[in-house]
Specification:
It is built from 17 helices and 21 strands. The protein is α+β, with helices and mostly antiparallel strands and 476 residues long. It has two domains: 306 residues, Zn peptidases (Aminopeptidase), CATH 3.40.630; 159 residues, 2-Layer Sandwich (Alpha-Beta Plaits). It is globular, with a radius of gyration of 24 Å. The strands form five sheets. It has a six-stranded mixed sheet with strand order 1-2-6-3-7-19, sandwiched between helices. Strands 8, 9, 17, 18 and 20 form a five-stranded mixed sheet that branches. The protein starts with a helix and ends with a helix.
């Protein structure tokens, strides 16, 4: 069932039960070969530490250039600075046609080794998983896409148009390298009609169906600081009424308690229609005037489902950083700085966010000011398109009882920069897992003990190959 206790129970079955339920009907010998090749390649990539910062992604770019060279293919290592390069390979098909870019990034977030069961840069293969930082975000696609391209070339490149492989630097920090550098300095290398990039491809069980969410767009960022001012002095005077720390606490409470406007868009309606079974609740979730209370009810019934749907209903204030202007415990600081993470829907901007902040803090009787940290508009690609239809066709052909739903990403990926620079390009985020569900996979990204099931890694390579064939064999 969907959106009920039964639905929650179906998402919490053991890993063994899930694997039995989700076995897919693919050639066993083929999948065994793909498991071996992709897991060995991913293991080697994980062992190259590209923690960002500082990145040092050139080591991966050169490794992949050498890997492709051994298979008779020459790409280009390019980018600045010298230690933060990307690798790009372009392949021409039999005749003119559309072009597809298979994209993944080389860098990873930091990993504290003391908290892991295995060394985070060991690339250990055990218990049917490849372990290590980047196994899910997103060196798995660096490896899977490479194997897909190699197989297509080995088969005689049986496609029309152009297939592009790219592993790029600087996705995690977004300081202007990687895909952004390529779009500005070498757009010829990544020119394409379609992009398939990392995304939320792990399925949600819905009875006997697998629901896959294809991300056609991404929310924007409107991150800001609130600097709260107070009166300095000695901490031995506890009744001081202009304490910036206490004022900052009131600011946080006011921001979190403020009722922000609800926006109900097509992608949230689609998810609600598929995932929420109760007709009355489904109806209220599609009504902007009643959706906020309905989301609270959904969170009581199924917190995981609510976490999937709620980010698509507008923006929220998420206080993440508190910094006092004083490090001494016996001193009243004259200022406290609050860092607030806020993500905006496509078509909305920082002016709406600032208006909501001022409304939320209208009754706060202390001096404060707002400073923008990072403002990036959200964007999206059309849906449906030939690429979404190719994805749907491949899934239905090889994975039983699948359903594809359009949604938007609440975080960000390099697809955002491509859509901004090249609005005519269709960029989707999708990397499917067919054995482990979203509940299994989502908790491991950017977390300790990051790992990917070898069977899912192999399917990602098979999927990329099949989507390329399906899309690039279509008429232009």
């Amino acid at each position: 069932m969907k959106g009920t206790e039964g639905g929650r129970e179906s998402r919490q079955r053991s890993a063994t039960e899930r694997h039995d339920m989700n076995t897919i009907g693919l050639d066993l010998a083929l999948m065994a070969d793909l498991e071996r090749e992709t897991s060995e390649l991913l293991s080697q990539l994980i062992q190259i530490d590209t923690t960002n910062p500082p990145g040092n992604e050139t080591a991966v770019a050169e490794f992949m250039a050498a890997w492709f060279r051994r298979h008779g293919l020459e790409g280009e290592v390019v980018g600045e600075p010298a230690d933060r390069a990307s690798f790009v390979l372009r392949l021409q098909g039999r005749r003119a046609g559309p072009s597809l870019l298979l994209l993944a990034h080389e860098d990873v977030v930091p990993a504290g080794a003391a908290d892991w069961q295995v060394p985070p840069f060991s690339g250990l293969i055990k218990d049917g998983y490849v372990w290590g930082r980047g196994a899910l975000d997103i060196k798995n696609l660096v490896a899977a896409n490479a194997v897909a391209v190699r197989r297509l070339v080995e088969a005689g490149a049986p496609f029309d148009g152009t297939l592009v492989y790219a592993c790029t630097a600087d996705e995690e920090s977004c300081r202007g390298g990687g895909i952004r550098w390529l779009l500005e300095h070498r757009p010829d290398l990544v020119a394409c009609d379609y992009v398939l990039n990392e995304g939320d491809g792990a399925f949600i069980p819905c009875g006997d169906r697998r629901l896959f969410m294809l991300q056609s767009g991404e929310k924007g960022a409107a991150q800001f600081r609130i600097v709260v001012h107070g009166q300095g002095g000695h901490g031995s005077v506890p009744l001081r009424r202009e304490n910036a720390v206490l004022a900052a606490a009131r600011v946080v409470e006011a921001l979190v308690a403020h009722q922000l406007p609800v926006v109900v868009e097509d992608c949230s309606r689609d998810l609600v229609e598929v995932l929420v079974e109760a007709p009355a609740l489904r109806s209220r979730l599609r009504d902007p005037m009643r959706a906020r209370a309905a989301l609270a009810e959904l969170a009581e019934r199924d917190p995981q489902l609510a976490d999937t749907i709620e980010p698509l209903y507008g923006f929220a204030f998420s206080p993440t950083v508190v910094q006092s202007g004083s490090a001494a415990v016996n001193v009243f600081s004259t200022s406290v700085t609050l860092g607030i993470d806020c993500r905006t829907l496509v078509g909305h901007d920082e002016h709406e966010v600032e208006a909501a902040v001022r409304a939320a803090l209208a009754q706060i009787d202390c001096p404060w000011e707002l400073e923008w940290i990072n403002v990036v508009p959200g964007n999206s690609s059309p849906y449906p398109t030939p690429l979404s239809e190719a994805i749907r066709t491949v899934l239905r052909r090889h994975v039983p009882n699948t359903e594809l739903v359009n949604t938007h990403c609440a975080a960000f990926t390099d697809s955002r920069w491509i859509r901004a620079a090249c609005p005519e390009v269709v960029a989707y985020n999708f990397d499917p897992h067919v054995e482990e569900s979203r509940a299994d996979v989502s908790v491991r990204g950017h977390n300790v003990d990051e790992r990917i099931l070898v069977r899912d890694l192999a399917f990602e390579a098979f999927f990329a190959e099949q989507v390329a064939l399906e899309l690039l064999q279509r008429p232009s």
